[in-house]
Amino acid sequence: MRTALVLGGTGMLAGCAGQLVARGWRVVLPSRTRPLMADDGPGRAARASISRGHRPSWVRADWEQPAKLAAEVEDELAGQPVNLLVAWVHDSYRVGVLNAVRHLLAEDAPVVEVYTSVPVPDPVLPHPTQQVLLGTFAHDATLRTNRAVLEAVERGLAGRAPSLHHEDAR
Question: Rounded to a whole number, what is the distance in angstroms from the first to the last CA of the chain?
Fold first, then answer.
């Protein structure tokens, strides 16, 4: 089973995480609070491996403690590599958090980074990176955000060249 690590996946990216699960991915969601959609507790990894319709796995994490975040994710992975990283991390924590989880990624794992402001920085990790810049939406923000991020995931998984996609109200 392929594994996705979704940083920032408990808020606006919850739909993206849910779609990855529906497509058969094992999804790990680090966050401070347990999202309603996530699986938690003893045996969650075993439950995830036997059920195609499983829920994402939640691990307690805080952006201010990137090494601890990475250790919690590593424990959850139990030696399995991350095949896809989707990250929507606040600018002040981005470099530290991404570098902390870098060693968990499979060598060929694509990365999708999500931003809400310009200028969009260069990718932190040496992996092929699809970048998504989100504009301001009057309505359908969650739907449009998840659609744009899933399109970037598809580009990354297809091996397309790294690119920046701007999703706005047009």
Answer: 37
Q: Are 19 and 40 in contact (CB under 8 A)?
A: no
User: How confident is the model over 28-71, as pLDDT tens digits?
Assistant: 999 887 655 555 554 444 444 434 447 889 898 999 999 999 99
> Residue 105: helix, strand or coil by DSSP?
strand
Specify whether the CB–CB gap between 126 and 98 falls below 8 A. no
Dihedral sign, Cα of residue 84, residue 89, residue 94, residue 96: negative
**Pick the residue with more confidence: 25 or 45?**
25
User: To which H or E segment does residue 58 belong?
Assistant: strand 57-60
Residues 6+ apart with CB under 8 A from 10: 17, 29, 31, 33, 35, 38, 58
What phi and psi values does residue 49 have, to the nearest 5 degrees?
-75, -20
